[in-house]
Amino acid sequence: MEYNPADLAALEPDQFSAATQTPLPRRELGRGVLALLVILRIYVLLAIPLVAYAFVRALLAGQS
Amino acid sequence: MLETTLASPSRPEDATREDYLRVFDRARVLRARAAGRSTRLLWLLAGPGVLVMLGENDGPSMVSYATTGATYGVGFFAPFILLTFAMAFVVQEMTVRLGVATHRGHAELIFQRFGPFWGYFAIADLAFGNLLTLVTEFIAVQAGGLFFGVPPWISVGLGVLVVFASLALRRYATWERALMVLALGNLLFIPAALLAHPDGAALARAITTWRPLPDDMGAAFVTLILATVGATVTPWMIFFQQSAVVDKGMTRADLPQGRTDTAIGASLAAIAAIATLVASAPLFAAKIDVSQFANGADFATALRPLIGTTGATLFALGIIEAGLLAAMTIATSSSYALSEVVASRHSLNLDFKHGKMFYGVAIGSTLIAAATVLIPGAPLLAMTLTVNVIATLLMAPALLFLLLLANDRFVMGDLANGWRANLAGGTIVVAISLIGALYGVITVFPSLIGK
Hints:
The structure holds two protein chains of two kinds.
Chain A: H1 31-63
Chain B: H1 17-34, H2 38-45, H3 48-56, H4 59-72, H5 77-102, H6 106-114, H7 116-147, H8 152-167, H9 172-183, H10 189-194, H11 200-209, H12 219-230, H13 235-248, H14 255-285, H15 296-341, H16 356-373, H17 380-406, H18 409-412, H19 419-444
Helix pairs in contact in B: 1-2, 3-9, 3-13, 3-14, 3-15, 4-12, 4-14, 4-15, 4-17, 5-11, 5-13, 5-14, 5-17, 5-19, 6-7, 6-15, 7-8, 7-15, 7-16, 7-17, 8-16, 12-17, 12-19, 13-15, 14-15, 15-16, 17-19
């Protein structure tokens, strides 16, 4: 494929792969947002072992 | 606003092969827009939405729909499936807006805006869920192959080769079109459903009235509710569609087409899902116990005397397609996300030299998943049933990140969520969390609401 530098105008400046290497600044997380993130993380950490328990129980039931 | 903080345009000598390939695609879009050719414009910009929705009609999803049809017939679950795809549209539309507003993938946005602590949690959820789901896609491929008498090592091996062949294209646009052709196979469930001679009036009544309701609304019913939600909205979809929108080079001007693409995908996927429900309903009428069915092929085999060999064959082919398409999209979702996290280059336009991490993740996860399926005695049935449940449980935190980013005016500008999107998104987070919590209660205290 022939690369023509003039064609680069078809891309917006922030679409170039080099432009996306510049990281965005961190945002400040308020207490409400932090609380939501923590609550849902606890939810996942509690739920996954439950699923694992149900998975093992199903396996044992299948073997018996 | 985001634009003010970004680097200035790259110099031509800084542009990469990836940039030039994207330029080539964008030039066609700009020409179509300038010529006012709206149909061609939609055709050029369609892809991420159709692929993400039909990709989510994957192996375990189709097994879930089939289990639902065989257990409860056509009733409550037909409109429920429509509702879940409406939910999926609400969620995925946000990823399109995020993609066109930021030109960055979902994983890198989470890392950059929330920091690595929360970023690693989000990626761990995704990597865990994606790997498990990828295993179930190869279970579907293996199961479909068994229906045709193909040994597992051949069907799974061929599946791996197809995934690798798609990666070898090293061109986003070609990859996307190839997968869209494959995605048409999802519609094989429609003729399979027609061969089941469904009662159109009963289907229309079910969709409009949500009846008949199941007699038994115990643990099995809640699990199927959870699995049906997990069959429609999952974390990999968020990461995949946003990255695909960015890789395709879509901009703010393309947002209407991006929304239409997502709506078309949701509609096609909902039709295919309901078709699977309808195709399996004869098993309900014949009172066949499907609780010990291991995979989609068992459904196809059981359906053969009820809907004929042609219908059963279409069903089995549909299961293979569902597994293959999802294996490609989910492996790519992992590639995008993990490469974004380590700031490695991430695009299907990369050559192998510059995309070692990107292609390595897809190749590695595909090989691990395929090898797991071939382990003698592996608990494939239990895995298939569990994966959608896990996807639903992991969806709540993934949705919270999505909502927070979609409300982040620094990155979204005027494309930030309005109150309607927040109300819909917030309702979905609460609903999914409550269903998950209910599942947890039922798992620990199964006697509470019976089987």
